[in-house]
Amino acid sequence: MSQSTTVVFADLTGSTAVFEALGNAMATEAVTTLTRWIGSVCEANGGRVVKTLGDGVLALFPDAQTAFPAVVQMQREHSKRLQEWSNHLRMRLQVGVASGDVVDVGGDCYGDAVNLASRLSDLSGAEQIWASQEAVAQLRKAPPDVRFRNLGPIKIRGKAQTQVVYRVEWNEDLNTVNLTQAAPIEDLTSPSAKAAWLELAWLDQETRFQWLDLPVHLGRVDEAQFVVPDQRVSRLHARIATRGTSFVLSDLSSFGTWVRFSGSASPVLLRREECILHADGEIALGAPFDDFTAPVVSFRVVGS
User: Fold this and answer.
1) Residue 179 belongs to a domain
2) Among the four 23, 93, 98, 197, which has the fewest Cβ within 10 Å?
3) pTM, full prediction
4) Does residue 184 sit within a domain?
5) Angle, alpha carbons 294-95-92 (nearest 5°)
6) Coil, helix or strand for 65?
7) Number of domains in the chain
8) pLDDT tens-digit readout, 145-156
9) Are 239 and 294 in contact (CB under 8 A)?
10) Same domain, yes or no, for 204 and 65?
11) Is residue 182 part of a domain?
């Protein structure tokens, strides 16, 4: 029997390095301790742990109103804990949240919301929470000091239609000036809009995106419309969308995005922030320009 519920998938990143550093026995104990703690946070907030999957936890909540406080608590408490850990032992959290009908079969659960929560967790990256539009729409009141940033429509593997995704900004110390939801869609039928396009190039890959093709994502997975398969590049690292008559680049990554316009010696560093792209220049993903190994994408804006 199916019922509407909110699904949370929380996954630990960096466990491979921990196994290499500690060995199988100690690393297994560390991972198990963390997954049990994740489960306890879910249960304390009204959730039910369905199962653990290696270094991941799948939990069900009655609704989004109980699920979001749980995932925010996870990130905040775990972030404080990580400050005391050595870099090579840090396992960070990435979380996906989705709402919808779920079928319970023999204690396990199945459904579109389960698949979507798992995929959002995979795409989100370390120390991030990504949520479906359906989950965010259920909220009557957001947890304290939490903002929801609209990342726009994203192509999700296995889904025929793009899904509108939100990033949950849980960090209480984060400057929230730029954490606004996307502006209303502009009229894209005007001749000037149709005439504008964006060109991106990296190594031997060159792609032209027309105005109506946007938004597009740069990242290292196939869901991105412009793929840069470098480990420093987040799964979906940055988003380029239209706003008014401009192309706007938004950083979605764990490690930052640098933008350098032609004729300027000073690059712009974006950390969960955005800037308007104009004329031409370069975008460094996950590492600054002074790192000669950084993956650098060239861009050119025409007609905006």
Assistant:
1) no
2) 23
3) 0.74
4) no
5) 55
6) helix
7) 2
8) 899 988 888 888
9) no
10) no
11) no
Residue 106 burial (CB < 10 Å; 0-12/13-18/19+)? exposed
Same domain, 40 and 150: yes
Domain region containing 240: 191-302
Q: How far separated are the first and last CA of the chain, in Å rounded? A: 52
pLDDT digits (tens, 9 = 90+) for 124-136: 888 899 999 999 9
Residues 201, 131 share a domain: no
Residue 145 to residue 174: CA distance in whole angstroms: 9
C-beta neighbour count of 150 within 10 angstroms: 18
Q: At what angle do helices 15-22 and 24-44 cross, to 10 degrees?
A: 140
User: To the nearest whole percent, how much of the chain has pLDDT over 90?
Assistant: 60
Residues 87 and 229 reside in one and the same domain: no
Residue located via tokens 């370390």:
126
- Mark whether 230 and 85 lie in a shared domain: no
* Count of beta carbons in the 10 Å neighbourhood of residue 221: 17
DSSP string, 185-245: PP-TTSHHHHH-EEEEEETTEEEEEEGGG--EEEESSTTSSEE---TTS-TT-EEEEEETT
Provide the CA 272 distance to its chain's centre, in angstroms. Answer: 11
- Overall average pLDDT of the 84-90 stretch: 79
Collapsing DSSP states into helix, strand and coil, what is residue 269?
strand
